[in-house]
Amino acid sequence: MRAAVVVFPGTNCDRETFEALKASGLETDYLWHNWTSIDVYDLVVLPGGFSYGDYLRPGAIARFSPVMNSVEKYVESGRGILLGICNGFQILTEAGLLPGAFLRNECGHFICKMVDLEVKAHEVFANVKRLKLYIAHSDGNYVVDEKTVELLEDEKRILFKYAENPNGSSHSIAGVANENFCVFGMMPHPERSTMPYHESNDGLKVFSAMRRWINAHTSRKA
Amino acid sequence: MKYDFVIHVKFAPNIFDPQAITIEKNLKKMSYPVENLKAGKVFEFSVQAESKALAFDIAKDVAKNVLSNPVLEVFEVECVER
Amino acid sequence: MKYDFVIHVKFAPNIFDPQAITIEKNLKKMSYPVENLKAGKVFEFSVQAESKALAFDIAKDVAKNVLSNPVLEVFEVECVER
Amino acid sequence: MHIPQEKLEKMSMTRDEYERIVNLLGREPNETELYIFSAMWSEHCGYKHSKKLIKEHFRVSDENAGIVWLSDIGIAFKVESHNHPCAVEPFQGAATGIGGIIRDIIAMGAKPIALLDSLHFEKPHDHIYEGVISGISVYGNSIGVPTVGGEVRFDPAYSKNPLVNVMAVGIVGRENLKTSKAQGVGNSVVLVGSKTGRDGLHGASFASRKIDKTINDRPSVQVGDPFAEKRLIEATMEICKLDCVIAVQDMGAAGILSSTTEMASHGKLGLDLFIDRVPLREEGMKPWEILLSESQERMVFLVKKGHEGEIEKIARKWELDSAKIGETTSSTEFRVFDKKELMASLPLSLVTNPPDLSREIEREYSTTAEVSKWIGPIESELLCLLSNPTIASKKSVYERYDHTVGGRTIKAPKSDAAIIHIADSKGIALSLGGNGKYTALNPREGIKAVLFEACTNVIASGGKPLGITNCMNFGNPEVDEVAAQFYATIKGLEEGVKILGIPITGGNVSFYNESEGEQIPPTPVVGVVGVVKNIYRIPKPDFTRKGNPIYMIGRLKVPHNGASMYSKRKGFFPTVDWKACSRVLNTVMRVISMELAVSVHDVSDGGVAVACAEMAMGSMMGAKISTDIHPFEEYPAR
Description:
The complex is a heterotetramer, with one copy of chain A (222 residues), two copies of chain B (82 residues) and one copy of chain D (638 residues).
Chain A: E1 2-7, H1 14-23, E2 27-32, E3 43-46, H2 66-76, E4 81-85, H3 87-94, E5 101-103, E6 111-119, H4 122-125, E7 130-137, E8 141-143, H5 146-154, E9 158-162, E10 173-177, E11 183-186, H6 202-221
Parallel strand pairs in A: 1-2, 1-3, 3-4, 4-11
Antiparallel strand pairs in A: 5-8, 6-7, 6-9, 9-10, 10-11
Chain B: E1 2-11, H1 18-29, E2 34-48, H2 52-67, E3 73-80
Chain D: H1 5-10, H2 15-25, H3 31-40, H4 43-46, H5 51-57, E1 66-70, E2 73-81, H6 83-88, H7 90-106, E3 111-121, H8 127-143, E4 147-154, E5 163-173, E6 188-193, H9 203-206, H10 226-240, E7 245-250, H11 255-266, E8 270-274, H12 287-292, E9 298-303, H13 308-317, E10 321-329, E11 333-338, E12 341-347, H14 348-352, E13 367-368, H15 379-386, H16 395-398, E14 409-411, E15 418-423, E16 426-434, H17 436-441, H18 443-460, E17 464-473, H19 480-500, E18 504-510, E19 514-515, E20 518-519, E21 523-532, E22 573-574, H20 578-593, H21 607-619
Parallel strand pairs in D: 3-4, 8-11, 13-22, 17-18
Antiparallel strand pairs in D: 1-2, 2-5, 3-5, 6-9, 6-10, 7-9, 8-10, 11-12, 14-15, 15-16, 16-21, 17-21, 19-20
């Protein structure tokens, strides 16, 4: 099983995301943002960071990078799973691959702390109820209209909710999936909770759930 | 020919802008009699095109596809006489 | 009486604005024929005051002391007729 | 010498410095040459009041940053100040301060992995505090280097002169270590990074006002672009792996001028610069403006002749400008060309060796050995101390810094020292701190207490100190009292380092922190890097389990410290047996290595009562302390 970590100018969390994927048993490569052939990968990850310095809006410029054309084709063909973490999630909403958009945190500044998450998408995360993961963002205030929230709730596409809403996101949403569950976006950083010396190891549960989902996804498609 | 444009990007009416709320709260704390403060962005740039109409389309395209996010924001395009 | 104001805040001419430069460079990469792009902020608010002149002073004060940073930015105050 | 006094003042140059130049040159300097001397002979670049003293008392290398070794992995580290820019524009001042210190680290070929900052303000939440904190947050977070520790201290003495000292730490393999020493004649000086503009030049007041009506009077502030810095970090890492790279230098004060001349003079080579080849951001820039511009996010590389293309290819990948702007020569001259026209021709050694103005003024600072007692209720004083903003929790500050990006953070801001993972079970412990009250009361003993405090923080977190760096924040060195404070601090630091047996690997000096003739208290800040042999066997900072006994190690009955937080009366600094303190620290290290202690915390501001309260609050677990030790007294190594 092969994974790719896409690197845009300004991406910061590529190294630890690469290490986390390897620790979860995936053969992983780095992918520079003007690379176009990504069909060889079962999982493509857009990691955290400040692509293009977050200028204009977080993710607003990265979404026009050459790799994003092949990412859109990769999603249409259902070839594999696409995971956007923090800045990656923002890029996916700017590209319209996931619903909603992001505003500045309600407190008005950057927040970096460990938060408790309630897992909502039990299909994807099997028997995991709660996760302790780090958040680190200044524009994590997820905004989505009420109609879409109902849709997300009905189709069980909300991955996690913050136990205590740290940034004003509607309905404390911390992560969502697209209609056919092959695009995932989450603001918390699983890759910072995977090593034995990290405060929590719940990040491994996220990556192993992704692995299981790839198997289920490919077998369902075959 | 070069045409100059000004693009105003504002939050859509139903969007709750935390920054504007905070600024207004602080202004009131400093006893400035200020109400319903809105914050937005403005971009100025020139477009190289044969005609004004063509330049206007390009400016509108840039505003729609790049400078604003349709989920959150609305925009206005204004051509500024040289 | 309530008076409505629009405040434009821009970087002073010789101040380096990396955001505007990055946006322009990438618009060009997307083959939009755009040149010398400037980015700025705009604030709209209403002021409660007895006269328009008094309201104007308050608006100018707000723009100078809170909404702009005199070391880096310049501002314009505009009173909008209701 | 017909040069008008007014022009000399604009160049912040004294008449005898000017006369010295004319004598040594044998002629008057032209316009461009005058600007070159005004920049290179300023205190900011030339260290006129400190260089000789520091060289006499410490063996310090001229490299961009100090380095200690964990077998084959090098830890590069340095601290720098950006005090004056932060007084002018707090946000950009702090942001560009981070950019500058990070470039010192990548100039060693090292990948930056941690930042710490020591901040001194008048009070919390004023506009300087907010500007500096958000500047560090925006710039540090955007370049993806975690801010893992440091301190924020408050004192009215810093109202007009905030102190913003930033420490950066990087890792480098032995084979990738770079030097700033130029080698080989005819090699190319290649600039990589952002375009050059009029950043940091003093606008018309610096140039002669009459001629340059166009440039408005506002000093063009240095503006940072963290996005460009991130690309510059990645590009520099790739460039440093090429064999054709001989030397690397960061561009800081006086940009192109100081970086290229320092590189050449370290290698005892001549230098020809072609400033018409510098990628510019603004039109009509004069030669001296290009030389002195402090535009950010730029580095300079000395590259083997003919290999410039390899550098330019990497620069293009990371969307950065690059150009060959000069070459080394076998002469001892520093020459500047604008296309074919020779703008300046000066002996390089004259440019890089300003006159020494250091002054050795002796002054005695007495101490007291009289043991102090506490009589009176403890609760009210403890609550008062715990609410003092210098002691109170800094959670609202460090939660605005990304302290876990990079995934290496083990113990971040909440503990005495930050612990960062290096490889397998090895880590490093980092601390940075100062205490203006101690060093104001007694510069010589106070600096030793600051040094011991920084080392105690590393030890309390499970580390063993390996190397020390420092930043000296002082007032106007031309004032006798300040010169005396500086000289006493240098001697005190030298004594402290000898007693501890830990090397000083580098440092920085910031003078002229004064306003309207009022000097700041002497505030040296010390940074320490320590090694953590096993990151899985280190103590916690707070209480862990009920029923654990609490011990205190160190001198129990201590003299009154006139600079303690609780002390209302002006007393003396305590007489300290520094050798005994060093033994205490070794004992604590042994206790930790034998895993006898579950959690360890050092006693600093507010004494033992505050230390215990902090451990209790951190773990929400009460504690019963019964002792006749003075609850609030402050004394080193406890």
